[in-house]
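Sample 3 of the quickstart, ligand magnesium ion:
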Amino acid sequence: MKLNAVELRRIAIPLVAPFRTSFGTQTKRDILLVRVETPEADGWGECVALSEPVYSSEYVEGAAHVIREHLVPRLFEAGSLSAARVAPVLEPVRGHRMAKAAVEAAILDAELRASGVSLAAHLGAVREAVDAGVSVGIMSAIPELLDAVSSYLDAGYRRIKLKIEPGWDVAPIQAVRERFGDDLALQVDANTAYTLADARHLAKLDPFDLLLIEQPLPEDDLAGHAALARMISTPVCLDESIESARDAAAAISMGACSIVNVKPGRVGGYLEARRIHDVCAAHGVPVWCGGMLETGIGRAANVALAALPNFTLPGDTSASDRYFHQDVTEPFVLEDGRVRVPDGPGIGVTPIAAVLEQFTTSTELLGPGRP
Ligand code: NPQ
Ligand code: MG
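Result:
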């Protein structure tokens, strides 16, 4: 496949409500979209980097820069491309996995659209719909949290994830358990907000029978997670720590986690995400699909990934209206607590031009002739 041009488009979309995590509060999403033009088809990818480097070291302006200056020139130089060759061609560039993932996703989408194959089928999906979970932000008070959880359960969500941080953990979790009962599928996400010195405090979560605790400790502290996992009964799940299939294998073999959150952006793309799925399956470790408040473009691809066999826990694959009043594609909706896996060619959804224009803050077109 030949690459004719690459468009970088920045969009700004307001969130339906502020989303607070242990690393801050966001009220809008500033997103970089990548569109590739090939002779056969266009393809779309969404970069999950946030505006600021607070979830990981990547951030949207940096991602746009590295794509423009370092990734796209290498792809044009490579001549004929396939999605499978993108990662090898970009291998000399260290890190920048979210940037690489967006570019690979766009090329993969173009390739699959050209051949009429859905991303779900290409990745090895075994389900037509996936169970939807929802991530609930930190609130200023418990009654507000209970109202939020209640409305998500009314909407049909099959699993609740509470964001936690020191000072917002035992009491809110206890309140949610008491109000909604022992059958509620409940898990928590700390986004690295604790240290191993908090192990005895985190053991106080044991009685609440959580599905998992996600990324309690800093991303580079695998040994700490292994030690913590021996001190608490809640299963430890890693998010930020896992940037590759090799990381997943290492974390599993040292006992740092028994469950893995797979986010394609964090690990450099859907093809590496599938390798993580495979390595975890080989170890008997369940995985689930994380989310980064994607628009329909990234959400469509995540839902395709979540349809693979070892995605046995509900993901942060929520409906579009969890985050946005208006999505840039046809919206993803809950049907009996599930989201349908797109079955059209490529990611199976297409941005709505007028909506895209409305949210666009800048565009640039990169061609092979550019220095
Ligand atoms: C996580 N996602 O699993 C991330 C964190 C995250 C759905 O909990 C704006 C504001 C964008 C907060 C992207 C979920 C964000 C954000 C991701 C939080 O750790
Ligand atoms: Mg997380």
